Amino acid sequence: MSTITARNWSNWSGFVRAEPKLVATPTDAGELADLVRTAPGPLRVAGAGHSFTPLVASQGSIVSLEKIEGLVSHDVQSHRARVRAGTRL
Ligand SMILES: Cc1cc2nc3c(=O)[nH]c(=O)nc-3n(C[C@H](O)[C@H](O)[C@H](O)COP(=O)(O)OP(=O)(O)OC[C@H]3O[C@@H](n4cnc5c(N)ncnc54)[C@H](O)[C@@H]3O)c2cc1C
Questions:
Q1: In this structure, what is the dihedral angle of CA atoms 38, 29, 19, 21, given to the nearest 10 degrees?
Q2: Ligand 1 and 85: CB distance under 6 A
Q3: What's the confidence (pLDDT) of residue 89?
Q4: Predicted TM-score (pTM) of this structure
Q5: Is 45 in the pocket of ligand 1 (CB under 6 A)?
Q6: pLDDT tens across 1-20, in order?
Q7: C or N: which end of the chain has fewer Cβ atoms within 10 Å?
Q8: Pocket test for ligand 1, best of 23, 32, 50 (most atoms within 8 A of CB)
Q9: Phi first, then psi: what are they for 33, rounded to 5°?
Q10: Phi, psi at residue 37, to the nearest 5°?
Q11: Which ligand 1 atom minimizes the distance to the CA of 51?
Q12: How far is 46 from 64, CA to CA, in rounded Å?
């Protein structure tokens, strides 16, 4: 699991680190849209931080979607589900 604090981010191993200008954890799509419009770039989304390469590292903004999670809907017959972007498997 990655480590994300008010100022820093690192991947699971700690070998990829970043000190972005902004670390944000929006709670809904409206807040996320505001960030996309106003946050210093480049803006990257952090998932679990399990990637080995600096895909998430940014000197601009790093956003965690961990508060935008959960099941939206599911269809038993088609075996399909819609989940919000921060949902962990
Ligand atoms: C021990 C270990 C074993 C692994 N084994 C395998 C394996 O067998 N096969 C394999 O394919 N991979 C493997 N990986 C790699 C790892 O599974 C993937 O890199 C990881 O699943 C990517 O998901 P993440 O949530 O960690 O993304 P992160 O590393 O956090 O981010 C990766 C990229 O996805 C973007 N991203 C993440 N979440 C979102 C989101 N919600 N919305 C938009 N963009 C997002 C980020 O911005 C970034 O560009 C392994 C990793 C580890 C540590």
A1: 20
A2: yes
A3: 87
A4: 0.90
A5: yes
A6: 666 667 889 999 999 999 99
A7: C
A8: 50
A9: -60, -40
A10: -75, -35
A11: 19
A12: 5
Question: DSSP code of 40?
Answer: P
Task: Give 30-78 pLDDT, tens digit per residue.
Answer: 999 999 999 999 999 999 999 999 999 999 999 999 999 999 999 999 9
Domain 3-83 has CATH 3.30.1300.20: no
Ligand 1 centroid – CA 71 distance (Å): 20
Neighbouring CB atoms inside 10 A of 82's CB total 10
Q: How far is the CA of 12 from the centre of ligand 1 (A)?
A: 10
From 68, 58, 61, select the one nearest 39 (Cα to Cα): 61
